[in-house]
């Protein structure tokens, strides 16, 4: 198989998960466990598709998907941050709502084709023989996802706001005592996570497939959650995890297409099995740097 | 200025009231949604909640369906609720349900065409065992390596779906089915067909077992030391450890029970209402049961009521699809909203709402 094509397809299949995972990383760094990634992704997928088909502009589709999923994620935020509901249950609820909502909206769009997203050929770099086509001729969302990883890394490591966000996630009582607005920081982190998941979902329906079918994210949101654990809450780890997973998916699909003797079902389940195995290996190593207040509700007594 | 004040103990009044409030809120927002879809809102609500039981023409068909749909939901939700009480989040019941059906059906089909009366009980045991084993995977990984059971149990749903696909198109395919996917039809095999026990009630063995599970779960949680340990682990994990409750045992107990019950639900479904192993056997009961467990306040009798209500929305949703052309997905959204509103209104159960003027510091 053509190595250029292989790398390109790995990048395409990794991008949705990378986007969703980097968003969830920020949310979790702020101490919020949002299990609704799958619901936000599928909402982004359907909204992005619907907007892109209606307006003819994939860029507007991505924008709309990010906004729609961010709004949806704020419903999770209001429930968990202001009404102090259980984060696990609310996240599951968000996934169920998102799946229902997307199926409802998407029923009018089935069978249509999305307008294609133009490739962004970077001058000079794109002209380098093999590596140019491999790395420097993708659509803008691929670059955006990579830029986001760097931006999140720099934000968490070097900025004051990033430090506050980490403080809120590490120990919300202390952060509150220091006068930081725990709930506001968390709402912002949740919205960012939602927007990223929406972008990821839209990438599935606008670039990877590019069509709308019900339940098309097929667990990508859950895999994004697993990748955050795999990454030990580090942006670079998320990048590695998403690309590894993208690699497994592409190889698995290529094997299916090549018609090996391995049963198709075994190949299709392999990404999920590998995710489990990786999770086990990571958790067996012990301490893995989860934020101290992850998943715990915060209620200021005064 | 609105302030929330934590109650020393959850309000019993609100515990009972919030599900009703959530249903009413869902009806209102759902009605608005139906209106936005261009459907008459009141008629849609009536079609979903009233007509399945009392419509002169359709009720005869849809009333028995109530138990058929509620049976698996209740059985799965009862198992899940025990884990949720202990803070063990098994969200892969759908996978355990599928594996129970596949294992039980495989054991049964191995003896085809036996007409022994022992075969059906054997299949039930095999189904429970299949679900139990599928639930044991996250349990073992959690206790041995500390792996997150939420993600593992969920990933295993996708694995189970692929096993189901390979069973229905491969190793369990009906040899007399002209090559079509799908196993032999259990409805044509009287020895193992899980038929209605009383005609036109929808009551089959699975529903009966679900009722027994409700009582069993009540006894376990309210009267048995293990049930107490489960609750203690959920409410005060440190206290539980100090009093000698082994966290690992609780994990095994909770995931084991929920896996076995979900597996049994799958077996009763495949030998009864579904009739055969087919590629679309997984119907989402495992996920809807999560809503049922919460809506029933993780209380066995509450789950009984919630399961019946959720079954009603399934049947009513189908009816509304037929009569009003309501999209099938809207009922899924309806169920999701129900959980959302329940979690939102639950703030009243755990907190007192105080209206106070902002004090001067």
Automatic annotation (TrEMBL), chain A:
Its main location: membrane. It is found in: Cell membrane. CDD domains: TM_PBP1_transp_TpRbsC_like. The chain crosses the membrane at residues 30-53, 60-82, 88-109, 140-156, 187-207, 219-246, 266-284. InterPro entries: ABC_transp_permease (IPR001851). GO terms for cellular component: plasma membrane. It is a multi-pass membrane protein. Pfam families: BPD_transp_2 (PF02653). GO terms for molecular function: transmembrane transporter activity. It comes from the Bacteria. The keyword Transmembrane applies. Keywords: Cell membrane, Membrane, Transmembrane, Transmembrane helix. This is Nucleoside ABC transporter membrane protein. It comes from Salipiger thiooxidans.
UniProtKB/TrEMBL annotation, chain B:
It holds the Pfam family BPD_transp_2. It is found in: Cell membrane. Signal peptide: none annotated. InterPro entries: ABC_transp_permease (IPR001851). The chain crosses the membrane at residues 12-37, 66-84, 96-112, 118-141, 150-172, 202-221, 250-268, 274-296, 303-323, 329-348. Keywords: Cell membrane, Membrane, Transmembrane, Transmembrane helix. Its main location: membrane. The keyword Ribosomal protein does not apply. GO terms for molecular function: transmembrane transporter activity. GO terms for cellular component: plasma membrane. It is a multi-pass membrane protein. This is Nucleoside ABC transporter membrane protein. It comes from Salipiger thiooxidans.
């Amino acid at each position: 198989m053509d190595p250029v094509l292989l790398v390109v397809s790995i990048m395409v299949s990794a991008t949705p998960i990378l986007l969703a995972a980097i968003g969830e990383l920020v949310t979790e760094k702020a101490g919020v466990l949002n299990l609704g990634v799958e619901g936000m992704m599928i909402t982004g997928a359907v909204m992005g598709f619907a907007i892109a088909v209606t307006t003819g502009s994939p860029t507007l589709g991505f924008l709309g998907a990010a906004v729609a999923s961010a709004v949806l994620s704020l419903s999770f935020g209001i429930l968990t941050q202001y009404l102090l509901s259980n984060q696990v249950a609310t996240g599951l609820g968000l996934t169920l709502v998102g799946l229902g909502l997307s199926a409802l909206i998407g029923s009018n769009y089935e069978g249509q084709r999305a307008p294609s997203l133009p490739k962004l050929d970077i001058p000079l770099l794109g002209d380098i023989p093999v590596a140019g086509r491999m790395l420097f001729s993708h659509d803008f969302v691929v670059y955006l996802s990579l830029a986001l990883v760097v931006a999140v890394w720099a934000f968490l490591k070097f900025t004051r706001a990033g430090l506050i966000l980490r403080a809120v996630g590490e120990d919300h009582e202390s952060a509150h005592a220091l006068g930081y607005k725990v709930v506001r920081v968390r709402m912002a982190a949740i919205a960012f996570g939602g927007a990223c998941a929406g972008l990821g979902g839209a990438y599935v329906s606008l670039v990877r497939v590019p069509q709308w079918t019900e339940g098309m994210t097929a667990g990508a949101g859950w895999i994004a959650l697993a990748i955050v654990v795999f990454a030990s809450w580090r942006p670079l780890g998320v990048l590695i995890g998403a690309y590894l997973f993208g690699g497994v998916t592409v190889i698995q699909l290529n094997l299916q297409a090549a018609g090996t003797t391995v049963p198709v079902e075994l190949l299709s389940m392999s990404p999920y099995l590998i995710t489990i195995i990786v999770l086990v290996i990571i958790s067996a190593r012990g301490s893995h740097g989860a934020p101290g207040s992850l998943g715990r509700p915060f209620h200021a007594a005064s | 200025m609105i302030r929330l004040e934590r109650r020393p103990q959850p309000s019993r009044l609100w515990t009972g009231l919030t599900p009703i409030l959530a249903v009413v809120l869902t009806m209102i927002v759902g009605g608005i949604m139906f209106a936005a879809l261009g459907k008459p809102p009141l008629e849609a609500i009536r079609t979903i909640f009233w007509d399945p039981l009392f419509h002169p023409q359709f009720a005869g068909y849809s009333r028995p369906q109530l138990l058929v749909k509620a049976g698996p939901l209740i059985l799965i939700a009862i198992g899940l609720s025990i884990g949720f009480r202990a803070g063990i989040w098994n969200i892969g019941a759908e996978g355990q349900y599928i594996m129970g059906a596949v294992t039980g059906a495989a054991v049964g089909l191995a003896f085809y065409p036996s007409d022994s009366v022992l075969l059906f009980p054997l299949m039930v045991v095999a189904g429970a065992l299949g679900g139990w084993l599928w639930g044991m995977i996250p349990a073992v990984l959690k206790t041995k390596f500390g792996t997150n059971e939420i993600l593992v149990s969920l990933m295993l749903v996708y694995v189970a779906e692929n096993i189901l696909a390979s069973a229905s198109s491969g190793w369990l395919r009906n040899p007399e089915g002209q090559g079509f996917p799908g196993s032999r039809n259990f409805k044509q095999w009287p020895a193992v067909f899980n038929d209605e026990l009383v005609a036109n009630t929808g009551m089959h063995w699975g529903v009966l077992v679900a009722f027994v599970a409700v009582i069993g779960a009540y006894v376990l949680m309210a009267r048995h030391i293990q049930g107490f340990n489960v609750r203690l682990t959920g409410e005060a994990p440190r206290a539980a450890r100090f009093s000698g409750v082994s966290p690992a045992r609780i994990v095994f107990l909770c995931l084991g029970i929920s896996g076995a019950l979900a597996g049994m639900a799958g077996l009763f479904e495949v030998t009864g209402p579904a009739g055969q192993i087919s590629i679309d056997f997984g119907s989402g009961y495992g996920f809807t049961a999560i809503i049922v467990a919460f809506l029933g306040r993780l209380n066995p009798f509450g789950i009984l009521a919630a399961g019946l209500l959720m079954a009603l929305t399934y049947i009513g949703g189908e009816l509304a699809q037929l009569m009003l052309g309501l999209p099938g997905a809207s009922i899924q959204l309806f169920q999701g909203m129900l959980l959302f509103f329940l979690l939102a209104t639950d703030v009243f159960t755990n907190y007192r709402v105080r209206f106070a003027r902002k004090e001067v510091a």
